[in-house]
Each structure stands twice: as structure tokens, then as C-alpha cells.
Amino acid sequence: MKNNIEHIKAIMQVFIESETVFTSLTDVMSKYPIQGDGNNDFVHHYLLLIENGFVSNRAGEFSYSKFGLTSCIGETNFRFSNAQIRLTAAGHEFYDTLISPSFTERLADFKDQPIEVMKDVGKELITSYLKKKFDIE
User: Fold this and answer.
1) Closest Cα partner for 26 from 67, 80, 71, 77?
2) What is the DSSP letter of 54?
3) Where are the domains of the chain?
4) Is 33 exposed, middle or buried (0-12, 13-18, 19+ CB in 10 A)?
5) Which of 23, 37, 54, 69 could tie 91 with a disulfide, CB 3.0–4.6 Å?
6) Minimal CA–CA distance to 103: which of 123, 89, 88?
7) Assigned CATH topology for domain 5-88
8) What is the torsional sign of CA 108, 100, 29, 81?
9) Model pTM?
10) How far is it, in rounded angstroms, from Cα 122 to Cα 24?
């Protein structure tokens, strides 16, 4: 499955709009605005957020079940639980990158790149944008 930065941003937006520190996986799923290939689209992009350290759970442990996902034996689908999850500091920083004007203007240039590349390039774009805006250097 291809990565879609708009889908990643949509999941992150649910965390950003939450009024509590932790939110439940079921709440995130219910507010995920993009309809796709059943739950596969959501799970794919949610796993990318977990694997890149953008989402954490109350236990601070890395286990898909601690993030509310349980793989069904013999099936490709997951079962979901009401795990309490939050966007990490790195997740907030990446979200800020995704919504920054300098990033969105150039999104088409590197939207198919790995998340790590988008994170690094986005950080450089924001730094460059702010330096120009505040006439630094």
C-alpha cells in the first residue's frame, strides 16, 4: 500500500483537535475523515505513525496490542481496542511540518518519499522559512 501524506495528516489532525492528552483509538478511527479500503487504509497509516515514533500509549511500550491493534490469526484484518494513545512531541513537530506553508507549497515535489525524508526536509524548509521571515543570517 502506498503512503498518502494527506491520510497521515488526517489521523494526526484528530489528535491535534482532541481536548484531552490521551484519546482512544476508537475515537481516532471514528473521526478519521477518509474512506478507503475498509480499515486497511487507516491501519496502514496508523502503523506508520507508530513505527516513526509519532504516537505513544499510556504504558510507553511498543507493541501493536498496546496501541489497540490485535492481528486476527489467519486473517489480514486487525481487531481494535479502546487503547489510550497520544501524539508525541515528535508527532506534534511532524504535524507542524505538514501544515507549514513552506512544506505544503512543495509537497508535490516529495510526497512519495519516505516519512523520514519528509520529516528531515520539512524541518529544513521550516527553518529556512523562519530565517527569511525574521531576517536571520
Assistant:
1) 80
2) -
3) 5-88, 94-133
4) exposed
5) 54
6) 123
7) Arc Repressor Mutant, subunit A (1.10.10)
8) positive
9) 0.81
10) 28
